[in-house]
Specification:
- The protein is an all-alpha fold and 450 residues long.
- It has a domain of 88 residues: Alpha Horseshoe (Serine Threonine Protein Phosphatase 5, Tetratricopeptide repeat).
- A three-stranded antiparallel beta sheet has the order 1-3-2.
- The chain is elongated, with a radius of gyration of 30 Å.
Length: 450
């Protein structure tokens, strides 16, 4: 960067006023950028000014290049911004930002904040995983938007979308707590704009609940889903199908919180709504039955759970055929329930059938196949057939490693169980790769204990 002249605030302000008179588009680009973070912005942000002829949506790409140059040149020549024509970005110099912001009244600050967030909204892509690099690059400005909403009360549709899309972009990256913070504020903006009873608020609460659930904040997830359900009941007809997914999510979260009776109530409500909408034999009924079966298992009611799981399997077989992944999942659930009820013969048969379906559906090197192999191995080990269990477990570990890699969290727990199997048999891993993985796991366990 070239050496810049140190100027007093009066000289900087005079340069800003010159741009306002001679190049209004450049002045707007400057004022908008100053409201956001001290980080580069794309030229498209400078051109995304509502109602002006230099909006790139109104002109072709070649014209957009010249429009950007015309917008930036008055700012660059007066040393108000640093521009990178190759990257097509610009940033306001810190001292210029300070002088400009200090010159604004509260009313002007709010107006320019609204325009800045409007421009940010136009350059922010939708929350698709492949768009993450762009969202990550814009993240300083997204947090600046959040600050403007918090400090200035900037409640606008543009602010809502920026926070909403950025929140779900973070969710797709597994950054759930950061996601929830942005979605919380997006919800507050939406409520300020539309009121608490708007249908969009129900959707906001559902999304927030899903993210909080993923973040492990189960009490707040329950509150979000319960609020969503309450609002849905006010907006829609009784037992409307739209409530079923929320009832299911609410039930699962309540089960995780140990609130079994409330979870059962929500699952039964979900089952009633789904049956009323789809009839007795629809796959969504099977899914709800399976979830309720898992709840009954957790409540110590394996016989009730088995009855529901058998009905779920019956529905899915009739709808999908014998070799569908949903059938395999049902068979796995039934195997676990049979084992809990002491029906070892029935449990083994269903474990093996589930494995056969997953092998046919997914192939040998898939996490689902690996899970079935390890489940069968653990069952055989529990039945005192450890020598039969070890090769199946090794096959499952090989499948996990091929599908997920050796560093995946599932590999650690699977290796722990494998080491316990080997301890009972007095054996060693039969492949060099498994031996290396097992030894690495042992070293890590010892290291954690020290």
């Amino acid at each position: 960067m070239n050496q810049r002249t140190t100027r007093p605030p009066e000289a900087i302000l005079a340069a800003i006023r010159e741009v306002e008179q001679e190049a209004p588009g450049g002045a707007e680009a400057l004022f908008m950028a100053a409201m956001l973070a001290p980080s580069p912005l794309p030229y498209d942000f400078a051109l995304s000014v509502e109602g002006t002829p230099h909006n790139p949506s109104l002109i072709n790409p070649a014209a957009a290049f010249f429009a950007a140059t015309a917008t930036m040149d008055p700012l660059v020549t007066r040393e108000l911004v640093e521009a990178d024509p190759d990257e097509r970005t610009y940033a306001v110099f810190p001292e210029v930002r300070e002088v400009l912001l200090g010159s604004l009244s509260d009313e002007d600050r709010l107006e320019w904040a609204g325009r800045a967030v409007y421009g940010l909204n136009l350059v922010l892509p939708d929350a698709e995983p492949e768009q993450w690099p762009v969202v990550e690059w814009l993240m300083p400005h997204i947090h600046a938007c959040r600050e403007l909403v918090s400090t200035l009360g900037l409640n606008s549709p543009a602010a809502n979308r920026v926070l909403h899309q950025a929140g779900f972009s973070l969710y797709h990256q597994g950054r759930h707590r950061e996601s929830a913070e942005l979605l919380d504020m997006a919800l507050a903006v939406d409520v300020a704009l539309k009121g608490k009873g708007h249908p969009d608020i129900a959707e906001d609460l559902e999304g927030l609940g899903t993210v909080l659930w993923a973040a492990g904040d189960l009490p707040r997830a329950e509150a979000a889903f319960a609020g969503c359900l309450e609002l849905q009941k006010e907006i829609f007809t009784q037992d409307n199908a739209v409530t079923a997914p929320i009832l299911n999510s609410l039930a699962v979260v309540r089960q995780a919180l140990g609130r079994f009776e409330l979870a059962e109530e929500s699952f039964l409500d979900c089952l009633r709504v789904l049956t009323s909408t789809h009839g007795e034999g629809h796959p969504v009924i099977a899914s709800c039955l399976n979830n309720l079966a898992l709840l009954y298992e957790a409540m110590g009611r394996p016989a009730d759970a088995l009855r529901l799981a058998e009905r779920s399997l019956e529905i899915n077989r009739a709808h999908y055929g014998e070799t569908h992944p949903e059938v395999a999942a049902d068979l796995n659930t039934l195997a676990l329930l049979c084992d809990a009820l002491g029906d070892t013969e029935g449990a083994e048969a269903r474990f093996r059938e589930s494995l056969a379906v997953r092998r046919a559906a997914f192939g040998p090197d898939h996490p689902e196949t690996a899970q079935s192999l390890c489940n069968l191995a653990l069952f055989l080990d529990g039945a005192g057939r450890t020598d039969e269990a070890v090769p199946l477990y090794e096959e499952g570990l090989n499948a996990y490693e091929a599908a997920l890699g050796p560093a995946h969290p599932l590999m650690e727990s699977a290796l722990d169980n494998y080491l316990k199997l080997l301890e009972r048999t007095g054996g060693r891993p039969r492949s060099d790769r498994l031996r290396a993985l097992a030894e690495a796991t042992l070293r890590e366990i010892v290291g954690r204990a020290e």
